[in-house]
Amino acid sequence: MNHGRDAVVLCCLAATALGGCGENRGTILTLADTTVWHPATVTSWQIQLTGTVDTAPDVQMFDIDLFDVDASVVATLHRKGAKVICNISAGSYEDWRSDAASFPASVLGNTQGSSGERWLDIRATDVLGPIMKARLDICHSKGFDGVGVDNVDGYTNATGFPLTAADQLAYNRFLATEAHARGLSVGLGNDLGQVADLFGDFDWILDEQCFEYNECNRVQPFVDAGKAVFHVEFNLETSVFCPQANALNFNSMKKNVSLDAARWPCR
To answer: Alpha helices of the chain — where are they, by DSSP H?
Structure first.
């Protein structure tokens, strides 16, 4: 999606020229007759993917499940002044999802994570493309401001398919293009090995456990571009990673592995 990257860069330059890139709740970037939210570098946030969404946290962004959350919850969070992100697994099949029957056996690979979850053959865009477009349509129709795409690093895992780095780049850029076409801000879920190639296509990144695995330097292209880094640790205490995370302007917190409502933010 090189043309999409150029569009994002041009829009960001325009926003900078107009002095709009430092607002507390982010800036709105114009892209191909749509508006895309670009979160400020420092943006308070919550991610909750299990349980009934707790709307109480006073934060600027909520990252919540696409399927499990009704549009009324999105509207409630909007009334609080928050932006709301729909979270989807774009690289794995989950047998409990309402669209599970849309995935033919030919694109299902090895087990990924929990029982009932399997890697996808991301090369099969003729099959997966319409499914992911339909998910993005749901995200848009429910009123979400953006989408976070997860499990988009299959090429580094034992998926059961001979995926290459080029396959992953093409698929991830497809997702970014389709999100932007619907006016959705789009965040890269991990895939740290391709950050240098993808930071121009995505508006922000969500990383898990980069301090635990000593790889936070790999998100530096997003930092250098003035794009928000959202970050979660599960096993480290906040006293271990928060001082450095704050110094790097990461939006960091500790979460339970279940990604329930509990949160321990660094700031």
So the answer is: 2-17, 71-79, 125-141, 165-181, 195-198, 220-224, 238-247
